[in-house]
Amino acid sequence: MFRTEEMDINMGPQHPSTHGVLRLKLTLDGEEIVDVRPIIGYLHRGVEKLCEHRTYPMIEPLTDRLDYVAAISENLGYCGAVEKLMGLQVPPRAQYIRVILAELQRIASHLLWLGTHALDLGAMTVYFYTFRERELILDLFEQFCGARLTYNSMRIGGLLEDVPAGWTDRVRHFLGLFPSRQKEYEDLLTVNRIWLGRTRGVGILKADDAVAMGASGPTLRGSGVDYDVRRAQPYSSYEQFEFDVPTGTNCDTYDRYLVRMEEMRQSCRIIRQALDRLPEGEVRAKVPKYIKPPVGEVYHVVESPRGEQGFYLVSKGGEMPYRMRFRSPSFVNLQALPMMCRGQLIADVVAVIGSIDIVLGDVDR
Amino acid sequence: MDPVLERVIVEAAVKIALVFFVVLTTVAYMTWVERRVSAWIQDRRGPNRVGPFGLLQPLADGIKFLFKEEITPPHVYRPVYLLAPILILVPALLTISVVPFGPALRLFGRDVPLRVADVDNGVLIILAFASMGVYGIALAGWSSNNKYSLMGGLRSSAQLISYELAMGLAIVGILMSAGSLRLSDVVARQAEHGWNVLWQLPGFVVFLTAAFAETNRLPFDLPEAETELVAGYHTEYSGMRFSMFYMAEYANMVTASCLAATLYLGGYHVPGLQRLGLPQNAAAIVQLLAFGIKVAFFLFVYVWVRWTIPRFRYDQLMNLGWKVLLPVALVHIVWVAFIVLMGWA
User: Fold this and answer.
1) Which one of A30, A146, A279, A326 is most buried, counting C-beta atoms within 10 A?
2) Once rounded to an integer, what is the mean pLDDT over residues B263-276?
3) pLDDT for B168 beyond 80
4) Structural domain contains residue B66
5) Residue A214: left (phi > 0), alpha (psi -120 to 50), or beta?
6) How far apart are CA A3 and CA A137, in angstroms?
7) Which pLDDT score is estimated for B224?
8) Range of the domain at B268
9) CB of A190 less than 8 A from some CB of B
10) What is the pTM of this model?
11) Listed residue (A114, A61, A18) closest to A359, CA to CA
12) Is the Cβ pair A350, B151 closer than 8 Å?
């Protein structure tokens, strides 16, 4: 007469904690997760195909829409790929400004992650604090290029314009402010018993599994694998900066949290070095009026806030690419989700999704 | 009709109407306080457009809820679905009836005690009504025919049952010291021998924690856990019925705060008031205000905690209830019994 059975439940695509339009088919045994199947594609816009019908400068705004909370990393990766194919040498000043922008973007993106992650676990106030600081970074971006979310901030061969007068001082001002603000978040979370209970030992991703799944970024480093594209394959003169690559030891949600918190500090460190040694000079290399890379193919990776962002570009010598392919870290990291969630409770799924920090625009492309 | 009886009935009716009005107004204004305080905590402004400081916001919200379309989804079990919000709101409001707000007020030549009912088993009535609330939540979750709502309903049943026990045991300490189930005796005893919080601190902590769980407030708001269960048991509700769940939540908060103040902070007792030698009515009003301040303090704590800390997980909540609060409450009983037995209290 009485029996128990597993229950299928759809989490998303309209759900407050799936960070966009991710749909998870959960199989539950009571509150326990038996299986998770992520279903993606609700935000698929066919960006890769669209690229085949755009000239090279026209593609950059499209890259803004991939990982829309870290658009500058996408701009940087895309421009880097084309520059690599064309053999362009970007002027050092432009390279440094790009680094400053990319690291500010990393902080902004991690702030958004921290706010939403804490919100998912019920700590609502952190969200408002992180957005307060993110706003300051967005203001800096607005002063630089006029946009606050989709920047189209760079140009192939460098930047469109130099930074406005006084901008570097405003960045310095932000850097002076940020550490104390970051301490505020840490006071609320890092040693909070409930926070520890919700994140420690939750969503464990062993180092071997993380590598096997192709995970990258903080998701990989949280599992203790010391790999950062900025150091492994430096681009945009990252080799000239000193920074640490934080790694975790327990491979859980809490370690991924700590890794991102430390990454924000390291980003500040990089920006400070870049500001101190900012070279003078041009910000754009000599670029032909019509950008036509030579026949060939190129693969260029950058470390976006979410991980290894790859750009594979095939040129047949025309004004438009023959094929454009994005290796998006969110997509690859997402496939580790079922592995991390099995056997956990339903509330942990929310914590784990938060800890791999996906952006659906990046997953679905 | 016997004129004495008539007076008693009129007096009771007036008091019921007054308490009902005050409680509902407090509930409405708690939503405003919650939003203003959360805004203050979160570095925002909060509602400040409707009236001065947004003070008319609860009114505007009420009007909005009344005029909202009520959607009853086709897949619900209607009789229970319609009944559930009532089942949750009514016990929440009823509990307040036994709380003594102050001593007697001298009006029209007779003493009017400031409470609706001074029953001898007030504490039991409170516990009984508090347990009634779970039916509303469980039935709302079940009748909605929605998996998320059902999980919310189940979570709340499990949660309330485990926390009721700890709460009941914490209160046992009070009963032993007061030797009575009547709340006015509990207050009188504290006026005589000092507030209970001073020597029953473990019981106070257990009671307060359990009260948070009973009222489904963060960090124990698992039944509605909006980031996991969307909104839990009230996902499928809209319009006024939806707002009834909210009113019940705030009414429960008010009740729990009244109880915490009565049981542990001496109720309406103000230390050293007698020495001032105020006339009866003035003293009563001062004590009434003191009670209000104590309740307001607990209400503020509710809001403060909600906007500061994250949410527990279901199993952690159960562990806390059964493995921490329950043993602490039991040890506390032994401690209080020992003190009472030795006559040190």
Assistant:
1) A326
2) 80
3) yes
4) no
5) left
6) 56
7) 67
8) 71-342
9) no
10) 0.85
11) A18
12) no
Q: Does A188 touch chain B (CB under 8 A)?
A: yes
| Nearest neighbour of B227 by CB, restricted to A7, A122, A132 | A122
Q: Count how many domains chain B has.
A: 1
**CB under 8 A, 24+ apart: contacts of B137-142:** B137/B84, B137/B88, B137/B216, B137/B223, B137/B233, B138/B233, B139/B80, B139/B83, B139/B84, B139/B87, B140/B81, B140/B84, B140/B85, B140/B88, B140/B233, B140/B234, B140/B237, B140/B245, B141/B223, B141/B232, B141/B233, B142/B77, B142/B80
Please work out, in degrees rounded to the nearest 5, the angle formed at the alpha carbon of residue A264 by the alpha carbons of A262 and A266: 70
3-class DSSP string for A8-35: EEEECCCCCCCCCCCEEEEEEECCEEEE
Which chain A residue lies closest to B228 (C-alpha atoms)?
A347
Helices B239-264 & B57-67 angle (0-180, nearest 10): 140
Asked if A15's CB is within 8 angstroms of B309's CB, the reply is no
Give the class (CATH, top level) of A7-364.
mainly alpha
The residues near A88 (Cβ < 8 Å, ≥ 6 apart) are A82, A156, A157, A285, A287
Number of C-beta neighbours around residue A301 at 10 A: 21
Residues B63-74 pLDDT 10s: 888 888 888 888
Taking phi over 0 as left and psi of -120 to 50 as alpha, with beta for the rest, A224 belongs to: left
Half-sphere exposure of B279 (CA within 13 A, CB side): 5
Please enumerate residues of B whose Cβ is less than 8 A from a Cβ of A.
38, 41-44, 147-148, 151, 218-219, 221-222, 225-228, 230, 307-316
| Residue B63 counted as domain residue | no
Query: pLDDT tens digits for A261-272?
Result: 999 999 999 999
B21 found inside a domain:
no
